[in-house]
Specification:
The complex is a heterodimer. Chain A is mostly helical. Chain A contains 9 helices and 5 strands, in the order ααβββααααββααα. Classes of the chains: A mainly alpha, B mainly beta. Chain B: InterPro entries: PQQ_b-propeller_rpt (IPR018391), PQQ_MeOH/EtOH_DH (IPR017512), PQQ_rpt_dom (IPR002372), Quinoprotein_ADH-like_sf (IPR011047).
Chain lengths: 168, 600
């Protein structure tokens, strides 16, 4: 954080405040009940000193490969017909990303027939959307390599309770 | 009929001898100058008696002409040729082109259905379509949105259409249809969305629905006679399906029917396989989950089942049983038998007596297969016909939230839908295979209509301790249950094979090569790199007395998902350098038909 602070100050002088704020979309600034957030309160991944990923990133790995993999390819890499979500999670604003998952999106033209379905009423996606999002962010920055994360943080009681409440 | 084909002399000859609807298509199929059915013939042999192109001259093969389909997604299936007309289909939006081969392939008509694009994401694994069917002067197209249309083969006008399923519930289509007698037989996709799989017959003239047989369900839904329908020679009994499920899970139990269909006119039976039970989490569906993963023999007139054989009771790996059933007449122990040979996703090749459903051979057709030690072949045994599951690779026994590792084959199977060929001359089967293994972690999911219903995390990788590639093209002896030869391929072989009387076998590769090999030895005799990866099926026909070979390119399908990015390197955790190339380093999207011939 100290490093981040000085970087921010320096950048302000250079007139690059917005640029730095965009970079900030990745770094974890604080954690709450085993979940990690940026300074702007956007969910993000965290890699511990021992290389363990946070629980949501691990959970996102599992849920991604259940719900998203059949179109978007293994580990967010993209397929022959659906975009690489590891890139989308970095390039897109969190709220835009969320919106596309909930409401879907269509790109229909002479050369493209691309349709993202609306997952808004699918608990297997919606209860784990932040998990999937932070996992993909970790893939996008290569902080999380391909394959199953070998080490993970434990699942906090709050995450467990929230999961049960969400799945109903 | 006569008027319709007045222009094409070949067909006029065929129709002259036509006795019934069934005989009409049978005669068209018997004429090797045509490619009248996706599967080559009713027996699904994919064998042509044409021998102008043969092992001595195939090395001289050249591209004769090409045709862009204008669509980028995965191109499965093949064109049909009836007389001087060629019918080319595309993936979604499912365009059909009628090309006039007597007029330099000019587009005689084009049909493009209006379909709601919302069907696209409900289709598991790309928007492929495995081609149109022909009978009675009509072209039959089963669209992605499950609309079945009959098009006038001469004009492209819609003669009738019927709706087979509901995409809002996840019911979609990727398969072709099978014209038999006065009906067409139609399957359904959507096992990953919790649909209740079924096969339906429509009247060939009117499109009226004649019968529907569910794969899982109550006895009246199944179209079975509990006393007469058999499983391994014994009556299946009452409530044979629902008593092998817990509660109402069977209602969303999958067992879809998206593969190929074959027909034996003498026995008057159609053959096909049912797919995986849903979800992919076996803990959520205790029991054998009958009749998922089952080879089925039914009467085409009323759909009644003659016999079943469930290959993989209580699936734990997504080993759909939908791959083609290849019908042959061969000697077994000195006696001529009517056989059915099936290369299952589960890695075992089955040979059965197709009259009775008796199991004769069940052996692995990929040496990597490890989830089972083999099938119990003792008719007196309690576990007769069941595969013995290796505990280490049982995702059921290891339990929910446990990652079972090193399972071979992977979910896409030692072979998927890409159809094998059979040569009556060599009595060998030529099989495109996947050489891929997986880790599989099942977990609990809840069902929402029209939403994916999967419940497992998978990672896939080339079979360890092998040649490093993800595929093989093999020759198989279905009586001995042995591989005769095996050609290693860098990627899964996802193209349907063609065997010919020219002693050669053709297949395509995911890099885009069309290859011809010696039917006896497997020696490579010819290859040509087409513009995109091949997941279509090789076909052949003649025009103006000259033999042609046709293949659709256009990478996609299941192969486009896993392989576009390259599969996970199993050795990553061990620090090995990842050497597994991604398919995207070799090919890009693009739908094209390439037609080959010998130089004049």
């Amino acid at each position: 954080m100290k490093f981040l602070g000085s970087l921010l100050t320096a950048s302000l002088f250079a007139g690059l405040a917005t640029f730095v704020s965009a970079q900030d979309n990745i770094t974890a600034a604080y954690s709450e009940d085993g979940r990690y957030f940026t300074e702007d309160d956007i969910p993000t991944y965290n890699i511990g000193e021992d290389g363990a990923v946070d629980w949501l990133t691990y959970s996102g790995f599992r849920r991604y490969h259940s719900e998203c993999h059949v179109c978007h390819g293994p580990e967010g890499e993209g397929s022959s017909y659906a975009p690489a979500l590891k890139t989308s999670a970095i390039d897109m604003d969190y709220y835009d990303f969320y919106d596309v998952v909930v409401n879907g999106r269509k790109k229909i033209s002479a050369s493209e027939n691309s349709v993202m379905p609306a997952f808004g009423d699918n608990p297997n996606v919606m209860c784990y959307l932040n998990d999937i999002y932070v996992y993909l962010k970790g893939r996008g920055t290569d902080a999380v390599p391909r394959g199953r994360p070998p080490k993970k943080e434990g699942k906090s009681d709050v995450i467990r309770e929230d999961e049960e409440a969400c799945l109903g | 009929m006569k008027k319709l084909f007045a222009l094409t002399s070949t067909i006029a000859l065929c129709t002259a001898t036509m006795a019934s609807a069934n005989d009409g298509l049978a005669a068209d199929i018997a004429n090797p100058d045509q490619w009248a059915i996706q599967t080559g013939d009713y027996k699904n042999q994919r064998y042509s008696t044409l021998d102008q192109i043969n092992k001595d001259n195939v090395g001289d093969l050249q591209v004769a002409w090409t045709f862009s389909t204008g669509v980028l997604r995965g191109h499965e299936g093949s064109p049909l040729v009836i007389g001087d007309m060629m019918y080319v289909h595309t993936p979604f939006p499912n365009i059909v082109y009628a090309l006039d081969l007597a007029n330099e392939g000019k587009i005689k008509w084009k049909y493009e259905p209006k379909q709601d694009p919302d069907v696209i994401p409900v289709m598991c694994c790309d928007t492929v379509n495995r081609g149109v069917a022909y009978a009675e002067g009509k072209i039959f197209l089963h669209q992605a949105d499950t609309t079945v249309v009959a098009l006038n083969a001469e004009s492209g006008e819609v003669e009738w259409s019927a709706v087979n399923g509901d995409p809002a519930k996840g019911e979609t289509n990727t398969a072709t249809v099978l014209p038999v007698k006065d009906k067409i037989i139609v399957g359904i996709s959507g096992g990953e969305f919790g649909v209740q799989g079924h096969v339906t017959a429509y009247n060939i003239e009117t499109g009226e629905r004649e019968w529907r047989a569910y794969s899982v369900g109550t006895d009246d839904q199944l179209l079975v006679d509990p006393e007469k329908t058999t499983h391994l020679g014994k009556p299946i009994g009452k409530d044979s399906s629902i008593k092998t499920w817990e509660g109402d899970q069977w209602k969303i139990g999958g067992a879809t029917t998206w593969g190929w269909y074959s027909y034996d006119a003498e026995l008057d039976l159609i053959y096909y396989g049912s797919a995986n039970p849903s979800t992919w989490n076996p803990a959520q569906r205790p029991g054998d989950n009958r009749w998922s993963m089952t080879i089925m023999a039914r009467d085409p007139d009323d759909g009644m089942a003659k016999w079943f054989y469930q290959m993989t009771p209580h699936d734990e790996w997504d080993f759909d049983g939908i791959n083609e059933m290849i019908l042959t007449e061969q000697d077994v122990d000195g006696e001529s038998r009517k056989l059915l040979t099936h290369f299952d996703r589960n890695g075992l090749a089955y040979t059965l007596d197709r009259a009775t459903g008796e199991l004769l051979v069940a052996e692995p057709f990929d040496p990597a297969v490890n989830w089972t030690t083999g099938v119990d072949m003792d008719p007196e045994s309690d576990t007769y016909g069941r595969p013995a599951v290796v505990a280490q690779y049982s995702t059921e026994q290891n339990g929910e939230d446990v990652n079972s590792t090193g399972i071979c084959p992977a979910a896409l199977g030692s072979k998927d839908q890409q159809p094998a060929a059979y040569s009556p001359e060599t009595q060998l089967f030529y099989v495109p295979t996947n050489h891929v293994c997986m880790d599989y972690e099942p977990f609990r999911v809840s069902y929402t209509a029209g939403q994916p219903y999967v419940g497992a995390t998978l990672s896939m990788y080339p079979a360890p301790d092998s040649h490093g590639g993800m595929g093989n093209f093999i020759a198989w002896d279905n009586i001995a249950g042995e591989i005769k030869w095996s050609l290693p391929e860098q990627f899964s072989v996802w193209s349907g094979a063609l065997a010919t009387a020219g002693d050669i076998v053709f297949y395509g590769t995911l890099e885009g090569y069309l290859k011809a090999v010696d039917a006896q030895t497997g020696e490579e005799l010819y290859k040509f790199r087409t513009p995109s990866g091949i997941i279509g099926n090789v076909m052949t026909y003649t025009n103006g007395g000259k033999q042609y070979i046709g293949i659709l390119s256009g990478v996609g399908g299941w192969a486009g998902i896993g392989l576009a990015a390259g599969l996970t390197n199993p050795n990553d955790g061990l620090g090995a350098v990842g050497g597994y190339a991604a398919l995207s380093d070799y090919t890009a999207l693009g739908g094209q038909l390439t037609v080959f011939a010998l130089p004049d």
